[in-house]
User: Fold these one by one.
Assistant:
Number 1:
Amino acid sequence: MAPAGSNFPGVNYNDKKINEGKGELMKMKNFPSFINGDSEKKQVQDYLKAISNRNNKVLKPQFHAMISTKFQEHSKEELTKIAENFMDEMGYRKQPFIVVNHNDTENNHVHIVTTRVDKQTGKKISDNYEKLKAQKALSDTLEKLYGLKSEEKLNRLLNYKISSINQLETLLDRNGYKMGKNPNDEKYLTLLKNGVIQQTLKGNQLVFDNKNDKNRTKQLRAILWKYKNIYSNKVFKVEDFRKQEGMLPEEKMREKDKLTPKIEFESELQKKLRDVFGIDIVFHHKDEYQPFGYTLIDHKTGTVYKGSELMKMSELFEFTSEKIGKKLFESLQDYNVRDSDSKMLLMDFLKVRHPENEIKEFMLFGNKKLKNKEIYNAIRNDVREYLKAQNNKDINVIKLEDGKYYVIHSRLHYIGEVEALIGEKQYQKLLDPQIQVTSKTEYKTGNELNKAVNELFFELMKSSGSAKDPAEQERKKRRKRR
């Protein structure tokens, strides 16, 4: 984040999040013992100011960074550990800093605040090429903690069978790498990730192989023919405005005439081929126009194909004029859409929550991925708290025509039956015909459902105490039988 002045507004910002219940102090490192988690924010600010005042040449001493994971892929504890190692890599190992977790967005993320003035020497910690330095520091941290070695991944990709330089560029781009000519010597190619050079290759090192395995080619054609009739092959446009949204105000003003979204084309068929067979289909297009061709990447055999060699694009896909924002699209993909009921339930919810987006059914892909124990427990806790206070906009309780109650957690991307969250015994009380509730149809036109069901659940929770998960009870029974 942009450097800030000597008052350390980042401390105030994060303290406000904590007071609002949207943040949690995870770590204070390298502060004296009299400054701890119980200290007032002014004490933290004054200590950082005192260090910064050792160098009056540094007018904006605040270092404020944010590390975010995709949705809930890393817990707050994992992100805190990542943040601590990241600060080591950035040269802030001995600096006093705070790490605060925020829970007010779809993505788990932590904020880090410290001073750029070295606590021991009084000199400014170098901020040259800081954005690139931060990307490398994060990459090194992830490799250290999780063994995610970018170099090994890149070497595997470079061993794929390709028939042209364009295929290599498509393969690399699809996996987060960029390829360009070396400005000092055009015979060499530079391979970058997040702006950091990963490797330099000499052009004559590349090997092009135009011969494909006939048996595998036959298999791929059979897979494409079969699954295009099972899953939706309707293709829609996905527009990514996040680069522009992340710009600083002065950057937006400077680039206002050049702001165009990054565009991709997606379909459920593509997702299923990726997930089940390791087959990745990449469309080629110019600007916002419809694709003119596609490339098929077969990760199972490490081979890249020209799509038309396998099946004509017009035979495999049906192109539509529909479009959706990338941020919303990725959120929808993370929901556990397990069956037609949950899909239609989510569709109705989206019409209310996102009326500005005409989301079509073929944009919602089936997803049977289970939420991990930590997220599931967080959902249960949020539902229980909601039933007591009724003030969590992330929770939505809905009754279907068949009488079943469902919960949609919009921040944690969960759709599930209420019975699994509050227990079978209490759920049976919901089925009492004397209890009046609002139907799914009425939900579409307002918030009456939430009001009616919340009142009902509130009474149930007061009378029952903490509900038990029937799935957990069943597991305990099985253990006893053993």
Note: The first strand starts at residue 23 and ends at 29.
Number 2:
Amino acid sequence: MIKGLLARINLKISKKTARLHGRPSTRLFALVFIVLILGVLLSGCAAAPGVSLTVDSQSPEPKQVTSGVQLLVLMTMLSLAPSVLILATSFTRIVIVLSMLRTAIGTPSIPPNQVVIGLSLILTFFIMAPVYKEMDQNAIQPFLNEQIDQTTALKQAQTPVREFMFKQTREKDIQLFLDLGNEPQPVTLDDIPTVSLFPAFIISELRTAFTMGFVIYIPFLVIDLVVSSILLSMGMMMLPPSLVSLPFKVLLFVMVDGWYLIVRSLVLSFTGDA
């Protein structure tokens, strides 16, 4: 019986194989069709006007070679734009504080990550708006109007960003990276290189964010301790304290208008009015 079943299976497989091998023209037609489609697409891409990333070393005009190299470098630096947006702006402090707030309440997935990151980005754009406005007036618009060259535009664009960093960075952190980089002692703020200012700003932001997160954590921790003590005194040791304290923490956060206080404190921490 088993041999008969195997024979039937082998017969079906051999028939299907014969059908596939019996259609060489169909397979050849499909292969030719795919090659033609790829050829048309590639020819269209090659003929696209206005886009060229080639650098001709034999060009009689060195400016053309320099512009091509600058374009390649600029496209490479665009991949670092998300990191710069995260680390050189107020985004780091905001997203850490909001994440710690979510953990303190006891809802690790509410609000979702998309909401936390979206709110952090919106607040970052709001806080950094004066910095961008100054960059636009002093660097971007004059460069687009051909009033200044590229080097001058980059220097003027760094000035408002450096001023923002200096306001949020501790002198201790700046001195740390000056010593690690064997840099000479600066006389003015302009003497501090951006290479030392950037990491100092990052660790200062991390310290400030964790300090704010600690202050936010305290009232919710008190609620957890009170609920745990009550459940322990009642002998309800099998009931998770976090499950009972969650409604009270949410109620406390809503009653004190927590989102208003958190956002207000975050914004004022950058303006220096807090």
Note: Confidence is low (pLDDT under 50) at residues 15-26, 28-32, 35-51.
Number 3:
Amino acid sequence: MTTADQHPDAALPDSAPATGGRRVRTLKDLAQLAGVSTGTASRALAGKSVVNGETRRRIEALAAEHGFQLNQMARRLRTQRTGVIGVAVPLGHERRQHLSDPFFMTLLGHLADRLTERGYDIMLTRVIPDADDWLDMIVRSGMLDGVLLIGQSDQYAVIEATARTYRPLVAWGSVLPDQVHCAVGVDNFRGGLLIGEHLIARGARRLAFMGEIRSLELIERHRGLCAAMAAAELAPPVQLDTHLASDVMAQEIATNLDRIAGQVDGIVAASDVIAQATVAALLARGVAVPGDVAVTGFDDLPIAAQMRPRLTTVRQDLAAGAEAMVAALLARIDGVATPSVQMVPELLVRETG
């Protein structure tokens, strides 16, 4: 009897019909039939891009012809890996925000593409932190080879503490001096500075920041805007708390616009989603954008170019960011330390400001 210990990548029993007098029961059998090494056959069936496309398709066709399937459970026991990456979205600062938020969906889509292309499954978790051990519980579950965090929220200290002992961890977010955990993200301070300098250059003198400043990324965007205004010897921007949760955003924006009516000539929204809702609310009130009030966003999600008028915003390349996150995580899974990556923001001037 063939056992998983004897043939760690054995095919499932009775799955391989005889063809030409040969039975393909093991990965070694398949490799010999294909004329390649066992390692190449294994990587081809795992969809690894390091295998030539033509060779991979030929091996996959032979496997299908002979009904061969890798015994993934035995393989994972042998390699001490689960083949699963955890993707967690911590929402300490925004407990009502949903995963359907366009930013989350865009970045998650890119991460899922990059991970599945490399043969990994994904375990997605939306976390409402009620204790400081939430991340430790995830990384110590024994179900994951590594963890990606979409955002740092207000959980920077928790992430830092876990990263001191758990290395296959990468977060999307800001990079601070002497930071322990590996993060990939745009220079949010620079992005806020670019927006402020642009609006000031086009004549704006009284600005408002539409967004909360409790999460690290938004704090940095607000700081950058304040720096631009200070350099121009202008008063600091009016800061208007606006949550990203869709069930309260519209009402908060309406209340904020009532508060600043006639007092500002530019609104710097903390995100494209907030900016889109702000433009819609202004236009509904008969306020011309950008004639009366300029509006800018942050992210450059697809909605930024699709809305009318088209949104002036700061672009953070989410596709490149997702690729960098996955590359860093896989290196860390293999024991290679990787530094944080701070991407350069790009100001995209369109029609709203």
Note: The first strand starts at residue 84 and ends at 90.
Number 4:
Amino acid sequence: MIRYFSLRRNTLTFSFLFLIQFGISFSFAETPVFWEPPELRILRNSYPDIMFSTSYDLEANDWKIEINGTTLYWADGKMLSADNLGSKDSFRPVLYRYAKEIPDPAEFTLEHIQEIRTFSSTENRRRQTGASLDFFDAVYDSATRRSVEQHITQIRFLGKNTNVHERIVEPLRRVEKRIQELAQTDSEVQNFVNTLTRVDSYNWREIGDRSSRSFHSYGIAVDILPKGWGRKNIYWAWRRDIDPQNWMILPLDRRWMPPKQVIDAFEKEGFIWGGKWIIWDNMHFEYHPELIDYNHIR
């Protein structure tokens, strides 16, 4: 690999004298862009304690990114290890659209409904890879069960014990503080807190019907289970077992969901809520400050 320049944080060094001295010629039309992808700024801002060191790899024709001793390639925002570059098209970018509002099935077109049926089918989900886990393995030191469990710690959240990755302890404490303050004046939030039965986080496992690890395996996903959720619907796959053809058009008022103020409290501290996914998981929150910033949710 010939490195024409180096980039660390936002400092760019580019020397034409170097090129002239060593007799290296090139066509401007064929030269890669020497400014790192702007989305990297979002990742740096979301994980400010982590050093992202970047350089351009001319052999791979891509940005090379060093994170906690792990080498990744930008790969159109998919943040892949060298081993995964060959299957680049199988992955989606790390940064993707997270809805600002809850998708309302009352507004779905027939075409949209059919697309959801196809997307959520067992056959299709078995083929899906989703986002590469390479970036998250580097951030959370979670490539293996043994490595991640060195970072798992028990906390008490809203009166319930749960095990989480140490990186989300402080964000969860701030969420808890926001909710407790809201509960002092908001009876809906107070009832939400009073009716919680469990808060589940770390669990080394794969996503059901997909060959990909759940973010519970990182200890950065939190499931909040209330009393009496059985009177409503809380998770798309459980509803699908009852109504395989039409689970996706179940009205919002028939789904259990936390108060909006609680969802907002989580989002303000960098968590996304599974109730905004088309294949909804209304008990589920995941720590992804990069998606909150990318979608301008705060």
Note: Confidence is low (pLDDT under 50) at residues 1-31.
